[in-house]
Amino acid sequence: MEPRSADTIAAIATAPGRGAVGVVRVSGPQSLLIAESVAGATVVPRRVVLARFSDSDGAPIDRGLVIAFPGPNSYTGEDVVEFQCHGGPVVLAAMLERCIELGARAARAGEFTERAFLNGKLDLAQAEAVADLIDASTRAAARSALRSLEGDFSRRIDTLRERLVALRVLVEASLDFPEEDIDVLSTYRVVEQIVEQRDSVAELIRQAGQGRLLRDGARVVLLGEPNVGKSSLLNALAGDSIAIVTAVPGTTRDLVRESIMISDVPFHFTDTAGLRDAGDEVERIGMDRARTAARQADLVVRVSDGRDDAALNQWLKDDLGDIPMIRIRNKADLRDERVGWLALNGGREIAISAKTGAGVDLLKEALLEAVGRSGLHGEGVFMARSRHLEALRRCKEHLDVAATLRDEVEFLAEELRYAEARLGEITGSRTADDLLGDIFRSFCIGK
Ligand SMILES: Nc1nc2c(ncn2[C@@H]2O[C@H](COP(=O)(O)OP(=O)(O)OP(=O)(O)O)[C@@H](O)[C@H]2O)c(=O)[nH]1
Ligand SMILES: [Mg+2]
């Protein structure tokens, strides 16, 4: 693909501050000329050249390395030059100034990656993965961002799109040739295939949701009757005395939040007021907050001491039915019970003792399991953004509708077209300019 930009951009690509090495990056048609002027030497494509960099008067700025990557085989797809200098702010500022004197202009945030996208070197999901990889705060997050950057996520989206296009072609063919004897929809099992694709999208939503948890962390709310040991459990998980623990039921009123890393995955815990049908005004406000927090949770840890309140159980079922839940039976030490998994009608619970810490590791395992750790180190978790999840959900909705339109073929074709367009927004093959602007503005300069 031909480079598209007429102007040449330059930026300091390394983080601000002092370091052994700092990089100034230049991209655009004048890059190679700028490199030779600054270095006073001939640059050889993809060869490291040691040179003295000097200003317009010939006074030295630094001695360093210059590497030229002629387009299209470069990060942006244009001619790119990287100067590796000593990493001091004065040197780097002087180098940038020199590049600007020679005709470059200062790059905007994210502009290098934006050019890579515009020149077809990366699709939109990959470009976003660049930012996610740089921003990753854990190894697991970095790994899944890298998978997206390498195109795993985009390939899955593209494959889905191709299948939806193929289905739409079939459906439209049946519209264009209604007099043909064969019933295209049944012959090619079109509705069944739509359902299959819908299920693939659902699976992708699940995997992408796990990626989001990796990046943003899982919101976990500790919920249960008063005095069952929710605050003790938070303290045991944190290995620190975060929340007040007393034998008085109704100790916790406000929400108590603590973020804890478990095997590289961030969990944001919220300890809450015990739920009961009593209490003063303060406690009742606390209980309202507890319920609100629980409704917004990714995961609820339902703590009990074995004497479940029936009304609370009913509320959990009615109001939080969609939120994954881990059941904890605390105070195993009081009952002389062994810690571990117990069968419960309709599920399982873990017997633990928050006081002695016995069994807390099992809860940690269960938490990791619940956010899909099994997949975290292997294949299949993508560093998706909420933008991607939203597009996938809308795609799935259109496929849900399409699957019901067996007898209204025009509408069926339309729904397939919408579903495919939603997928296109993820990789950017069909996207509004303002969407692009938002995405690249979140980048830092020099990227
Ligand atoms: N023996 C025993 N006591 C426990 C255990 N966990 C908590 N406790 C005790 O139970 C009492 C209540 O503990 P908290 O952690 O304050 O309970 P809570 O669920 O936060 O209570 P509220 O904030 O009032 O809703 C305290 O006296 C704790 O020491 C346990 O595993 N074993
Ligand atoms: Mg408490």
Verbal overview:
- The protein is α/β, with parallel strands linked by helices and 447 residues long.
- It has 3 domains: 9-123, Gyrase A, domain 2; 134-213 and 382-428, Four Helix Bundle (Hemerythrin (Met), subunit A) (Up-down Bundle); 218-370, Rossmann fold, CATH 3.40.50.300.
- It is built from 16 helices and 13 strands.
- It has helices at 31-39, 89-101, 111-118, 124-135, 139-149, 152-176, 184-187, 190-216, 230-238, 281-295, 310-319, 360-370, 373-376, 386-402, 409-427, 433-441, and strands at residues 9-12, 19-27, 48-54, 60-69, 80-87, 105-106, 218-224, 256-262, 265-271, 299-304, 325-329, 340-344, 347-351.
- Helix 6 runs antiparallel to helix 8, helix 6 (152-176) packs antiparallel against helix 15 (409-427) and helix 8 (190-216) runs antiparallel to helix 14.
- The model has no long low-confidence stretch (mean pLDDT 89).
- Residues 230-231, 243, 251-252, 271 line the site of magnesium ion.
- Guanosine-5'-triphosphate binds next to helix 9.
